[in-house]
Amino acid sequence: MPVSQRDVRTRIASVKNIEKITRAMVAAARLRRAEQRIEALRPYASAIRRMTREAAGAAGNVPRLPILAEHENVNHVGLLLVAGDRGLAGAFNSQIVRAGVAVGKELESGQSAIYYASGRRVASSLSFRGLEPAQSFVGFSDRPAYADARSIAERLMAAYIDGDVDRVEIFYNGYLSPISQVVRRETLLPLQQATVLEESEADAEEERTGHQALVEYEPDPEEILRRLVPDYVEISIYRALLESTASEHGARMTAMRNASENAGDLIEDLTLQMNRARQAEITQEIMEVVAGAEGVG
76, 81, 79, 78: which is closest to 112 by C-alpha? Predict the structure, then answer.
């Protein structure tokens, strides 16, 4: 059955409405603000990690602090999956869930995964898979604050100290560019197994020259670590939240730009289809007029 002009016009109007929505969701300004927050935080995060490692080295054997005690057996692994509250961002959310679930399935015999979700999409995806998260943190993926990272860190550190988990890992989208994000997996606790990220310029200079600054600790390194380790966990989570936010804006901007371009192509195809339908109707009307004239003659 041939498609009428009216049907095609309705489809064109619908696609144009979708195109307006997708164009409106290309938020380059928000992406730039997220990039600036990451650029400002990265040196501080690197410094905190470096200070924590140096204090632990100066203390010799790791002090007998609950947060620093390495558990004898690793039976429960806490997996924090960081993504977004909203969709329409391509594979941004799903690739984090897939990575976390894959690691949970690959744990050694006798080990089990305890999931923690940051972002509504992560929480709903885990629940759909029958992997109910131990706790969900939602409502701030567009613009996370340090207080959000602190609340997550407090929950994870409490779980580690209480023995609910024996290792804590975090999964998030690391920001490279608006069109490129990479899934990162890091170990937060115990400190002895913590993932070492890319070094800062100061670290790179020390590695190149072999010279390190002499540091005197007052009070002793144990007390420094007691105060520093919670900051290290908080800032690590905060960095992951900011990286994830920038990645989400970039992924959504790319996905919406592609959707807008596809909508434009579809509108062109539908317009051509409508013109053909109109041409066919005109031709049919002419033929009917000619046939009627011949019948009268």
Answer: 76
Beta bridge partners of 113: 77
d(CA 170, CA 160): 14
Query: In CATH, which superfamily holds the domain spanning 5-23+255-296?
Result: ATP synthase, gamma subunit, helix hairpin domain (1.10.287.80)
The contacts of residue 143 (CB under 8 Å, 6+ apart) are 245
Residue identified by tokens 């550190």 is 157
Rg (alpha carbons) of the chain, rounded to whole number? 28
CA dihedral (32, 37, 40, 42) positive or negative: negative
- The pair of structure tokens assigned to 177 is 């560019």
CB-based contacts of 277: which residues, under 8 Å, 6+ apart?
A: 2, 3, 4, 5, 8
CATH number for the region 28-252 comes to: 3.40.1380.10
Q: How many helices (H) and strands (E) does the chain have?
A: 7, 5
Q: For residue 265, what are its two tokens?
A: 């192509």
Give the residue from 234, 190, 199, 171 showing the smallest Cα distance to 42: 199
Per-residue pLDDT tens over the stretch 54-113: 777 666 665 567 888 888 899 999 999 999 998 877 789 999 999 999 999 999 888 999
- Domain locations along the chain: 5-23+255-296, 28-252
Tell whether pTM > 0.85. no
